[in-house]
Amino acid sequence: SFPFSHSSDQKNKMIDIQNKASCTGCYACVGICPKQCISMQPDEEGFWYPSVDKGICVDCGLCEKVCSVAHPFPIRQPLATYAARSKQAKYLSLGSSGGIFQPLAERVIADGGVVFGARFNEHWEVIHEKAEVPEELPAFSGSKYVQSRTGDTYREAEGFLKAGRKVLFSGTPCQIAGLYGYLRKPYENLYTVDFICHGVPSPKVWQIYLNEISKRLQQKYPDSRLHLSEVSFRNKSSGWNDSSLSVHYTGKKQGSIACSEKKSRNVYFRGFLGNLYLRPSCHSCPYKAGKSNSDITLGDFWGIGKVCPSFDDDKGTSVVMLNSPRGVSLWKTVESESKEVTLKDIITGNGAYTHSSPYPPERRLFFQDLHQSADSLSNLIRKYTRRNYIPTLRSIAGRVLRKITR
User: Fold this and answer.
1) pLDDT tens digit string along 255-309?
2) How many angstroms separate the CA atoms of 298 and 43, rounded?
3) Of 219, 300, 303, 406, which has the maximum CB count within 10 A?
4) If DSSP states are collapsed to H, E and C, what string results for 208-269?
């Protein structure tokens, strides 16, 4: 299932994606290629995969050596696990859960380091980029429910590490594993942070979703030139348990226009939680149970009301898993309200830490209709999530109801 072709004499090795579930799209092979003959190309579902110019390839085998799918890390037990949230309101409001990432990143920058994270570009695509001053960090905070492109950031990070600067690299578990695969050696000045990952949705589906919102608003305000100005996947203004996906536009006549829906009602979240348009590799993720090799793992602490009722104020609480001595040392620099918990406490509300998202039988038909049908994305999502979305909706509603009745 590895994404490589092998000749009969076993000498030639190059990327040859025959099973898309075996490629996470981490970009490590692109960055390491000495001939720059590997490029990432989107497939019909909008996910990026490596493509080799065989006329330039010299069969050096470096792409195989850096592939973390071909060379996986072992399962690890965290050194310590916490429920935590920042003591500072500004961090808590920035983050999707307990506001822990921002102070970790600020500590590294205060020490002269560089932070890499995911942000939106001018086209509202999600990309990885570096930050060297605190003012650039807020763009990395908050969840982005789209697969990001790491681009050339592995190479950039390596340059800073070799220069002796601290580097904090944040991303999905597969992106962190990809970074380690690319580097091929340990660095004491490298800190890595990943998160408990449900899966990464298609960038193509995200763009279609935004286009449908824009089209509806343009029809409603035909005389106004609307401009997309802000996206928040997990807006906590109405609470953390059922946060909102908020999309803001500005227009010359109407001013600011906000389209905001709670997660339990939003159609994009419905498709995401129903696993309808996740990357194929997300259904057989090789990085569960700490196998990304990250120093720290963050996440939402679902079920915090049962584990630590005093934290259950609907403002957000983070899972903090310290996986290495470096992670422990960085964590000690953060001022937080925290409580040590067990790994079982975390997994009870976060099954995605140990298990991949199930592959829905409707997925193939959804993408087939997305390419061929004249129906809207919203209608297609509703059509193909009727069966598997009900349990998820009940779970969200249950959390909100318990909060209301307490």
Assistant:
1) 788 889 999 999 999 999 999 999 999 999 999 999 999 999 999 999 999 999 9
2) 30
3) 300
4) HHHHHHHHHHHHHCCCCCCEEEEEEEEECCCCCCCCEEEEEEEECCCEEEEEEEECCCCHHH
Structure tokens at 190: 């490298």
**Dihedral angle at the C-alpha atoms of 360, 363, 366, 368, nearest 10 degrees?**
-150
Query: At which residue do the structure tokens 């086209």 appear?
Result: 123
Count CB-CB contacts under 10 A for residue 215: 11
The answer to whether 30 touches 155, Cβ cutoff 8 Å, is no
Helical (H) or strand (E) element with 396: helix 390-405
Number of H-type helices and E-type strands within the chain: 14, 15
- Tens of pLDDT along 210-264? 999 999 988 888 877 888 999 999 999 889 999 999 999 987 766 788 889 999 9
Phi, psi of 384 (to 5 degrees): -100, 5
Q: Position 116: which residue type?
A: F
Q: State the Cα–Cα distance between residues 115 and 307, nearest whole angstrom.
A: 32
Residue type, 147: Q
Under 8 Å CB-to-CB from 130, ≥6 apart: which residues?
A: 114, 115, 116, 153, 156, 157
225 closest CA partner among 257, 199, 197: 257
